[in-house]
Amino acid sequence: MNTSVTEEQVAAYRRDGFVRIPNIIDKADAARYAKAALAARDRPRAAPADPTFTHVMQLWQQDETLRELTLSPVLAAAATALAGIPLRLYHDHLLIKEPHNGAATEFHQDQPYWPHLGSRHSLSAWVALVDVPATRGCMSFIPGSHRYQGLHSQDLRDADNLMKAAPELLWEPRVTVPLRAGDCTFHHSLTAHTASPNLTDDPRIAHVVVYMDAETRFDPRQRDTGVPLVEDDGTTEGVAFPDADFPRLP
Ligand code: SIN
Ligand code: NI
Q1: Burial label, 124 (beta-carbon count in 10 A; 0-12, 13-18, 19+)
Q2: What pTM does this model have?
Q3: Which InterPro entries did the record assign (predicted)?
């Protein structure tokens, strides 16, 4: 298991806005987490079916096994080294692309969805719990796109949405990053990324842990859906994210 990131990996992340870290989770642990992920998927939920992916949030508050993964000190230490600032958990989510789901996750940035005030940095760990070759809903990134700030939030189902907002990105190279079970990528919350449809007979199981600047404040004017709500105190300076729901890590 990889317990720390190298200087080269930090430099690559800061240059490109993403980096692949092989073997951050043991294979045996990845298999254990994959089993817990499928059990979590099969619990009754209110969320409507979505061809893009089956989406289950806040596993760390619902499932002992996946809590261990979300709060992993190894993942959090790597995220902190890459970001270069103290972090806290924003949320986790399981993203399962069912076999032959027929839908890509279209190009987008993550940051515009989030009600974060004064954020210096936020990033996600995308952990492959099964092998994810290019044909199984694999992620691709546009290197350097984390320099595009201030774009509106983009529609995950519209392939042109981000490209209309930033037409230069149409002509930038895209890097596809297949992962083995237990590998992960970290991506900056402004890095443009997409995931292809799952063309295979097996589910693509990814567990995503989102980290934010420990000092970021909640912007009550911009509600996110699905994450725990922060009480709005009516001010425009934002509200502190409470440690109980957004623990400081590692
Ligand atoms: C996906 O896995 O389909 C998308 C992940 C992301 O947007 O971070
Ligand atoms: Ni995303």
Answers
A1: buried
A2: 0.95
A3: Phytyl_CoA_dOase-like
